[in-house]
């Protein structure tokens, strides 16, 4: 093997190693969706004696593709659902919603008084892992893992 062939071989091996390590550090799952990020993530844990919490966040879609949110997966509570506040007969009410659209090059905001993620059956603090995550599931079998900030 010539010196230049050996050098090319070393460059390829090192490039593959660096690429694999960067991917492992930046991706939590092979199904994580590319071009969609969650910002302004806020976790409001249940009040003492309660088991219902809420998540607020903004989803930013920087792709030319529309996505449909199908559900939420988590391991540290019984279930999570998308909910929407609305006004009816002078009262503020809340209703479960499904099939939320995240349009191309747009944002979808989950905030107080609007869309939000209700988390039911939150396990006692001592049973939960320190870094809480939720997985937002899309209709094309892709998902987005969101790390919830630790509440002080």
Summarize the structure.
This protein is an alpha+beta fold and 152 residues long. It has one helix and ten strands.
Keywords:
single chain; alpha+beta; 6-stranded antiparallel β-sheet; 4-stranded antiparallel β-sheet; 1 helix; 10 strands; 16% helix
Q: What does this entry look like structurally?
A:
It is a single chain. The protein contains one helix and ten strands, in the order H-E-E-E-E-E-E-E-E-E-E. By secondary structure, it is an alpha+beta fold. Strands 1, 2, 4, 5, 7 and 8 form a six-stranded antiparallel beta sheet that branches. Strands 6-3-9-10 form a four-stranded antiparallel beta sheet, with no helix packed on it. The protein is globular.
Tally of helical segments: 1
Principal-axes shape call: globular
Order of helices and strands: HEEEEEEEEEE
Structural class: alpha+beta
Q: Radius of gyration, rounded?
A: 20 Å
Major β-sheet, in short?
Answer: 6 strands, antiparallel
Structure summary, number of beta strands: 10
Low-confidence stretches: 4-30
Portion of residues in beta strands equals: 35-45%
Helicity range of the residues?
Answer: 10-25%
Give the terminus-to-terminus CA distance: 60 Å
């Amino acid at each position: 093997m010539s010196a230049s062939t050996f050098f090319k071989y070393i460059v390829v091996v090192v490039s593959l190693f660096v690429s694999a390590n960067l991917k492992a550090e930046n991706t939590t799952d092979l199904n994580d969706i590319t071009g969609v990020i969650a910002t302004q993530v806020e976790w409001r844990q249940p009040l003492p004696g309660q088991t219902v919490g809420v998540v607020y966040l903004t989803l930013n879609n920087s792709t030319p593709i529309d996505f449909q949110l199908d559900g939420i997966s988590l391991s540290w509570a019984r279930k999570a659902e998308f909910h929407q506040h609305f006004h009816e007969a002078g009262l503020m009410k809340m209703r479960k919603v499904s099939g939320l659209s995240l349009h191309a090059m747009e944002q979808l905001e989950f905030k107080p008084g609007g869309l939000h993620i209700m988390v039911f059956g939150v396990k006692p603090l001592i049973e939960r892992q320190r870094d809480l995550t939720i997985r937002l599931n899309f209709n094309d079998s892709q998902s987005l893992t969101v790390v919830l900030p630790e509440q002080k």
